[in-house]
Amino acid sequence: MAGNQLWRWRALSPQGERLAGALWAPDKQTAWTVLQGKELVPLELRRCAQQSRWQAQHRYDVIHQLATLLQAGLTLSAGLSLLAQQHPARQWQALLQSVADDLSAGCAFSDALKKWPHVFPPLYISMIKTGELTGKLDECCRQLAHQQKTQQQLSAKVKKALRYPVIILSLAVAVVLAMVTLVLPEFAAIYKTFNTPLPALTRAVMGLANALQEQGAVLLLSLLAIISGLLFLRRKRRWQYATQRLLLTSPVIGPLVRGQKLSQIFTVLSLTQQAGIAFIQGLESTEETLECPFWREKLQTIRHRIMQGMPIWSALNDAAIFTPLCIQLVRTGEASGALDTMLSNLAQHHNEQTFQQADNLASLLEPLLLIVTGLIIGTLVVAMYLPIFHLGDAMSAG
């Protein structure tokens, strides 16, 4: 569906009522045929020039509202049609109505969502498929909405923790550039009148300022080339694998990344276990929800070892990515037959711990960055005024 275009239409119903809406179609002729297939008489059909980005908040709202409608007793097709009528964004109206039409034609809900991979990530497809297999679609949608809300809150908390340090660092860089390019040249003219050697710190700062002014364009192009190279490497499997291993070994970001991934893994495993799905199949569904090749490979190895007869806790322990608490609770749940409860407890534990780590990240970065900024600006100020402090000695020597 990536090649589809959004079309706005006006048409007459069989009863002569004027209707309007939007739909996705690859071309005008197909859109016209779709309207006629619904027994509508098209009056106007216009292609929307540009569509806004698919927002994660809209995706969460749709699943949350759908879960509520299903629990209220509405059918899936009726619920989607109702959401399509009430959604404020035209592109979502057209998408939801398209999915409802696919359901009316006999298509499974998960298969209908697979047609929109750029809108619904693998986690959505996996959870919806789980709900279809177990007959608990409303519960799976509710749990999915809760998981997505938690992830959004965590992402917002991390962004909030990083926003203040980024602002401070940006202001520090702006001040340093202004002092180096505007203030320091004026001091350099004064320094030339001194009949005494400049301090080593001042000479070093002036040398850095001259290098920035002379090689500024080259440095900027090099920086842009590095950023472009990193953006290109982000799509490479080996780079993603190496980056994830590096992040997990970092002292501050590592626990945050590990906690977020473990929370997602145990949430999906808990939902599949509560739905009565076998653990092997649950692992396969969880593997599909992970985009990082590092974690996908780890879960694939765990699944193969369990299929060969290894206990679940032992396979998790050999993966070397799970905490001792994970191994202990999984081993207890496997022995007592309460594995679903233990997985749910682990998901909640890692979720709460990750939120706490995000708060700790903010409390750690703010004072650290203030110290670094103070050292940089303080060094520049001392380097500029240090020769003036020695001016009296130079005049006495003269």
Automatic annotation (TrEMBL):
Annotated transmembrane regions: 166-191, 211-233, 368-388
Subcellular location: Cell inner membrane
Keyword check for ATP-binding: no
Classification via Pfam families: T2SSF
Residue intervals of the Type II secretion system protein GspF domain: 63-185, 267-387
InterPro entries attached to this UniProt entry: GspF/PilC, T2SS_GspF/T4SS_PilC_CS, T2SS_GspF_dom, T2SS_GspF_sf
Membrane topology: Multi-pass membrane protein
UniProt keyword list: Cell inner membrane, Cell membrane, Membrane, Transmembrane, Transmembrane helix, Transport
Family: Belongs to the GSP F family.
Protein name per UniProt: Protein transport protein HofC
Species in which this protein is naturally found: Leclercia barmai
Gene that specifies this protein: hofC
